[in-house]
Amino acid sequence: MKRPVTSRAEQRQRTETRILTAARRLFAENGYDRTTIRAIAATAGSDPGLVMRYFGSKEKLFAQAATIRADGPITGSPEQLAELLATALGEKLADEPAAALAALRSMFTHPEAGLEVRTAMSGQQQQVASLMPGEDAVLRAGLIGALTVGVVIGRHLLQLDGLRDASPEEITALLQPLISDLVQGRS
Amino acid sequence: MKRPVTSRAEQRQRTETRILTAARRLFAENGYDRTTIRAIAATAGSDPGLVMRYFGSKEKLFAQAATIRADGPITGSPEQLAELLATALGEKLADEPAAALAALRSMFTHPEAGLEVRTAMSGQQQQVASLMPGEDAVLRAGLIGALTVGVVIGRHLLQLDGLRDASPEEITALLQPLISDLVQGRS
DNA sequence: GTCTATAAAGTGATAGAC
DNA sequence: GTCTATCACTTTATAGAC
After folding, report:
1. How far is the alpha carbon of B149 from chain A, nearest alpha carbon, in Å?
2. Using CB atoms within 10 A of its CB, is residue B177 exposed (0-12), middle (13-18) or buried (19+)?
3. More confident position, A136 or A5
4. DSSP type of residue A1
5. Is A109 close to B136, i.e. CB distance below 8 A?
6. Which nucleotides of C are covered by protein (CB under 7 A)?
7. Which distant-in-sequence residues (6+ apart) come within 8 Å of B49 by Cβ?
8. Min Cα–Cα distance to chain A from B57, Å
9. Beta carbons within 8 Å of B41's beta carbon, 6+ residues apart
10. Contacts of B140 in chain A (CB under 8 A)
11. For residues A145-168, b (16+ Cβ closer than 10 Å) or e, as one string?
């Protein structure tokens, strides 16, 4: 008897990733509540029962699908910091990170998603603030965070007029000096 | 027979506003999908049947509850414009406009709410851009809009670290020069 | 192991009793 | 006019047939 090119375990993991990819896309497009297990299974070419069997619950599936990958560690002088933050923003604008978008779209209506986003941002902000001078460093770091989410959701989720079509470079070129001002504490 | 101090029509309109207020609060707190007619009725001390009778459908109730009041007309020189935008932002930070927050919280998961926010912002942005110099005025106006929503949701909805506690004046003081840069096109 | 059938719960909306 | 009772539907989750 010839071994199949794809073993049982391989096949299983393959459909598992297919389900996860489908879930990510649908969660990013429609949010947690409006995405049904049925729709995910259909998109993945699979079955609702299997989705439950593999991931346990809709909640657990979402947790895996909407995990935000943290940016690399942040260090350097204030001048370097501004440039670092601007390029990190540029990356978030260039590609469409489905997992992060899934979390972002659901953050206002699904408590778990809100927590995910808040903790991810909180960690980042503390790091950033510790590298910044001034009494109000935490506030200024928060404003950088707010600016970042504002631009990301303005482009990917709300599709605001000017933001949708502009190139990432164009946007970061405009924003880097502003971020630099916030980092240095000039006002 | 003595006339009651509150007539039939008065009484009716009174409960109608009570329902509307409750709806605004719950929509702002939990979003469209997770807010039920039943919960609105209970909060308003009324009845689900009456809510339907008065407003026709959940959709129509939401439309009335989540209407964004546009800012006053925007005019003036670029210098004035930056100040105007900063103070308008300050107002949005000082009080908690329940109707706008209801629309904002649901904008990613409820298409109607998304449209409401998008059209409100689009109108504002076009006005602002028309008063700004430079080729990329539309993009820069969009960035001002993104910054504004970012800060508003960062404070009221996400409750980001530095933003939650800072005073509106502190925030606008930091942001006005940045807005001014975007308006003038310095970068 | 994969999928069908169904259970259990909750929703918006409606009809009709008081 | 106000509210109770219920309909029709959809959801996640489960149990069991193949």
Report:
1. 6
2. middle
3. A136
4. -
5. no
6. 1-5, 10-16
7. none
8. 19
9. B19, B47, B48, B50, B51
10. 162, 174
11. bbbbbbbbbbbbbbebbbbeebeb
Residue A145 phi, psi (nearest 5)? -60, -45
Nearest-neighbour CA in chain A from B99: distance (Å): 15
* CB B7 within 7 Å, strand D: no
Select the residue of A142, A149, A150 nearest B162 (Cβ to Cβ). Answer: A142
Rg value, chain A, Cα: 20
Residues in chain B: 187
Structure tokens at B36: 């039920």
Alpha carbon A79 to chain centroid distance? 26
Per residue in B145-162, pLDDT (tens digit) is 999 999 999 999 999 999
Read off the pLDDT of residues A135-165 as tens digits, 9 standing for 90 and up.
999 999 999 999 999 999 999 999 999 999 9
* The token pair that represents B167 in the structure block: 């005073």
Find the length of chain A: 187
Q: Do B118 and A159 touch (CB under 8 A)?
A: yes
User: pTM, whole model, 2 decimals?
Assistant: 0.95
| Contact state of A187 with B174 under an 8 Å Cβ cutoff | yes
